[in-house]
Sequence to fold (718 residues):
Amino acid sequence: MKKVWLIIGASMRSQLRWARQHLYTWLILAPLILGITYLTASRLVRNLSIADISFLQLTVVGAALFIGLLGLSLSRASAELYHQKRPAAYFEALPVAAHTHLHAALLTRCGRTLVVGFFLVAIKVILQEPLNPAAILALTLFVMLTSVAEVFAALQWIHWSHKRRKRFALLSILLIAVASQYAGSLFAGIFKSLETGYSSQFRVILPGLAGIILLYVITRFAHQRMRASDVEHARRIEAAGRLHFFSVAFFRRRFQPTVAAQLARDFQLTWRGFSSAVYVIALLVPLLLATLVAALTTHFLPPVGRASAWLDAMQLPQVSAVKITSAIITATLASLTPVLVAYELPHLWLERATGASGLDLWQAKISYARFISVSAPFLAFLCGASFGGVPLFYLLPLLVECLMLWWAISSLIGALSFEMPTRPGLALIVMATVGIGAGLGASFGLLTSAFLPLGVMFYAQAMHGLTDRGRARARYYLLYGED
Amino acid sequence: MIKVESVTKRYGNLVAVNNVSLHIRGGEIYALVGANGAGKSTLMRMLVGISEADAGQLLICDEDLSRRLPTTKKHLGYLPEELLFYDQLTGREYLQLVAGLKEADDAQIPVELEFFGIAHAAKKLVGGYSLGMRKKLGLCAAMLGSPEVLILDEPLNGLDVEMMRKLRHRLESEREAGKAVLVSSHVMSFVERVSNRVGVMRLGKLVAEGTPDHLRQQTGLLREDFEDVFFQLAE
Fold:
């Protein structure tokens, strides 16, 4: 067990030091994420009224959450188990037993799944329900079962991609299905611990506990047998499993070769998570969409009035909410641009050596900002069309407005990408603020369909100036680097 | 100490190591040479248990690696070709971690840091290390616990001339102490000077083996650079 703690201790110490160096993430982005999560959860929970939901319904929700967590953690759990491209890969050559690697991965998983546990506790607090021992026990077992199942699923996933044993895979799916039922019951037990008697709790907790032990024994046995053959395969699929649709050829259809090559590289880097900001933003977008859904489906916004005219519909709270969300998601996604510029700044010698101009650099970044955020207007529009009270005749104009907002905000952020490339944290905040500010302003008038000619003129004037400045700034960094 | 019997390793249709057999005794330095992709690193990874052989047997100090006993790896000191460290740990902290996992004495850490000339950077984060310093840290880690078998994959990459010389002397002293050393390198002058025997690999096969003098005689290149001997054997 000493070796397990040594491995986990080293990893934690390394991560804590990294966190200390990225304080802006914790001081600015973390409160933002936690705030949005809390507000969304509290809104949903208050409106849904858990008391009205049956034990069976909660079981289904819990099982779905369990399966979702398993799917999301497959890649990360396999990396924790087999250490692909990680410093811990060296430990394979040291006298470290296979089960030490397994236990280190399990404890790491437990730590990460505990975040979900805290989230569930927060929901209990919002509901003003007491955290009785039965609920705490059910929560603990839910976290443990999920952690073991995550490692088991990762183990089987790697083995399946290697050996393709159908019978083995079917058995694993069956086990996960049974485990999801237990996980669902434990999840329901967290919220219904007071209503069900002790005997019912006993019927939930005891099988859950037995399930954890059984799954752990199977995982340990399978890991012992499969590690030696799968560890190298895990390393190789990591290297081979790159997506190739961000190829230069794809971008060459539209851009000059110099810009296309840069764009392809930028998207490959993003796909491979060049910065933690990629993960933060990937987390923020669904949260923002969930917030929009919560706002549209609850009593947060005033009820939809009768809108028979174009201008009436444009100012409906539901329509404004969709446009604002579209603007915020666009700004959030496009905010990756300054982080990317900062990441690439030490490697600009490549562009310098290949004769790229400042304009090429600037065009690549503005196109990156547009491409990376292109999903925002569609996502916001789809949520609005599905859940909001948007009048039918205004659906198409709403989509056009969302697209215009996306174009304006992403262009603005992309155009400013070389303004402060050595301070990505500050640039991210400034550009997100500018983008969102412009988006909010635009969603209430300037670029909306009523003032379309004015908006287009304003955009053309602003972009002309920004192009000159952006090209000069990019050229400066191309010539003089970080200094 | 190291026994490789008819070992084969495949990656799909590619045969990375093809029916290779070699024996390395205690008190011997064996150099493995070959072009990139010849199978040197794959063979070394199999010898330290990171990769599994498809066929054949690998023995370290008479213990079969396929039994995957952690005790077998206690005899091993390994320097991988690709060095990955926790960038946010200091050099000393990293070595303390490795010593803990190897169950080695922490007292050896300052000695190794001093020997490899990175004692001054022991309290600095590894993320700030240069390529040479990272290589030296990897060598320190390999030497911890005074293993009976040393497997060093491209140890000279990134090292300065002075450190190359120091490393050569160190390997010679390890040989005097009765340890078995398997080293891969592209620096033929180093290979000729340090090794008792040289194995030449090409497309996964061990195509020639013997002392440097024996290989010279085999090729008839008695006065040329050892590099020419290698080219003739590897072609």
Notes: Residues 248-480 of chain A form one domain. Chain A touches chain B at residues 2-3, 6-7, 9-11, 13-18, 21, 85-87, 89-98, 228-229, 231-232, 236 (CB under 8 Å). DSSP finds 19 helices and no strands in chain A.
